[in-house]
Amino acid sequence: MRPLFLACLLAVFPVVSTKSPIFGPQEVNIVEGGSASITCYYPATSVNRHTRKYWCRQGAKGRCTTLISSDGYVSKDYEGRANITNFPDSSTFVMNIDHLTQNDSGRYKCGLGINSRGLSFDVSLDVSKGPGPLGDTEVYTADLGGTVTINCPFKPENSEKKKSVCKKTDKGCVTVIDSTGEVNSDYGGRIELEIMGTDQLTFSFIIKQVQLSDAGRYVCQIGEDTIGEKSNVDLQVLKPEPNLLYGDLRGSVIFDCALGSDVENMAKFLCRMSNEEACDVVINTLGKKDRSFEGRILLIPKNKRSFSVHITNLRKEDAGNYLCGAHSDGEPQKGSPIQAWQLFVNEETVIPPSPSVVKGVVGGSVAVFCPYKPKETNSLKYWCRWEDTQNGLCRSLVESDGGVTEQYEGRLALHEEPGNGTYTVILNQLTANDAGFYWCLTNGDTHWRSMVKLQVVEGEPSLKVPNNVTALVGETLKLPCHFPCKYYSYEKYWCKWSNKDCKILPSQGEGPSDAFVNCDQNSQIVSLSLDPVSKEDEGWYWCGVKNGLRYGETMAVYVAVKEKVKGSQDVSQVNAAPGEEAVESNVRKVESKVVQNPRLLVDNVAVETGDAAGGNRASVDTSSSAGQSGTSKVLLSTLVPLGLVLAVGAVVVAVLRARHRKNVDRISIRSYRTDISMSDFENSRDFGANDNMGASQVIQETTLEGHDECSAATTTTEKTMESEEPKKAKRSSKEEADMAYTAFLLQTNNMAADVQEGHGEA
What we know:
Blueprint: H1 2-12, E1 27-31, E2 36-41, H2 46-50, E3 53-58, E4 64-69, E5 82-87, E6 92-97, E7 106-112, E8 119-128, E9 132-134, E10 137-143, E11 148-153, E12 163-169, E13 172-178, E14 191-195, E15 202-207, E16 216-222, E17 229-238, E18 243-248, E19 253-258, E20 267-273, E21 279-284, E22 297-301, E23 306-311, E24 320-327, E25 338-346, E26 357-361, E27 365-371, E28 381-387, E29 393-399, E30 412-417, E31 422-428, E32 436-442, E33 450-457, E34 469-472, E35 477-483, E36 491-497, E37 502-505, E38 508-512, E39 524-530, E40 539-547, E41 550-562, H3 580-594, E42 609-610, E43 617-618, H4 622-637, H5 640-659, E44 664-669, E45 672-677, H6 678-682, H7 684-687, H8 697-703, H9 708-723, H10 733-757
Parallel strand pairs: 1-8, 10-17, 18-25, 26-33, 34-41
Antiparallel strand pairs: 2-6, 3-4, 3-7, 5-6, 7-8, 9-10, 11-15, 12-13, 12-16, 14-15, 16-17, 19-23, 20-21, 20-24, 22-23, 24-25, 27-31, 28-29, 28-32, 30-31, 32-33, 35-39, 36-37, 36-40, 38-39, 40-41, 42-43, 44-45
Helix pairs in contact: 4-10, 5-10
């Protein structure tokens, strides 16, 4: 029975939306004889733009009688003084009503469709008595925050008497100001008394920065006694008509505040009314911000008199009454210049949902989806970073026309997807400093602006690419990108980044990847080949994934392109450090100039020499070879000293050969010609290689590199030395000269050998 009872209740009571998407002013205050212009907003749908709009008056029993509608109907009471106009482009319709009287005060509805079943919004209209006499009372009106001047008449005989003004309250008539200088503390600094002179027969009191509490009945009095001359004044304070703002859930709005010339040097603020008296600061020019608006609010000064406040990612709790104003301390104060706003947030929004928070890992990437009005395909798109400065600031990072901030080159790209109402911003190579708030903007409809919060968390990027590489011009470069199993069904791509876009390049799959642990053949490698490499190929390359039109993760790698060094033997090392090939080539050139043959036959032979005095001896051993290594490094760094040494040696050789040409036998080994005295073979026991413990015949034979002619000469010489009995001969001056020359050759040979052995070190 209970389910049946509930079904009957639902049939009797129609389902009514708890909050209508129609929005208009809650209160309208007009002085009698004036006119009202009442604007109502509706959701921007095709049906709403073309359906009937109406304005009706609510009766005592809840019935709403139509007074005017968009289909041409006008009631008798409104004939000649009212009209209704629809503005479909702005999703609003406006009722203009003239010649209002106090009889027009009451409750009304503006709505769409049929009165009893359509969407509507309640409006309260209050028409007050206009300025002028009302019996024995003069009526004055003043705008909240404005200035009013009230005149009090008196008779000529009372011109010299005291003048005063009091306000009627529950406690009697309380003095506000008098001609002796007394001023009520509630009016301190806001009220003054002005006496024109005895010929004017009036005095005035002026109230500045009018407050709501100033409204009421005042009495102008002449003289001290209670029977003095008096006149009554009624002051009405009109609340400022609030400016209406209509925003969609997840959309954005802009408060345009203009406060006049009196606030040029004051701090500006926007506050939200929490009750009739309290207004909590949302943002001000002194740097204060409500934490609930962090990352989604900006205050932008226009000039010293006006400013605008932008709020994005609207929430339903943002709806309410706001005041923008100015005061020296940036806080709302009684009497400070203000401008009232009423914000409505439509929960039946047409703005698609999008993540307000995105997360990425250090070194990885994020893809942010930004909505825009679908009809504005050709609008300019932006992406900016919100910064927590004094007023808030959003610094543009990338634009759809190709502009990218310099510090984000190679990291940031904006992809447009015409027709679906979104564009995508990709930021890769993430660092901890990238965390923060970012805004999606267009130069079109400002209601479609949105904000996203980027969080950078711990973790590893899903994609794996090589580190930045160096390629050689004319060679082939292959860039692999490893994708994990979760992207098996996604589209993979390589693209080359530019400040306009990231152009997709042809790539090829290479089967399963072994870069991931606990993963099967669903993990893949997709490679990009540059064949041959040219200088134009230098730049940033991205590998990434897509799922339909939605972009996913990306990874970036920079390819540096170098010219191929002449004489280089290794051109396949694209990761070589810049300049490495050049160093190796230079070393080889130096070696070829220093040593014609790889090694001389007489390597590491010990030589003993004596000078003309017969007292000095020198030995060449392994320690002297180490010393020569240091010399070879010096010779390698510069060829000039080596050339001087060779030149001096050539002179010495020429002199010695001229003196002893008759007794010298010549032996030719390869292209190197040298003079050796036959007596040297006779004294082989003293000077032969077999007596030098540091020498080796194997090394000597290896140095010749298998040449037959040199091997035969070496074998013949060794047999001769073994067959003859070594003789101890007295050294002549010729022999000493030959020994000196041989020592010179040994030193030169050791230098050349060290150059070859030190090649790797160079």
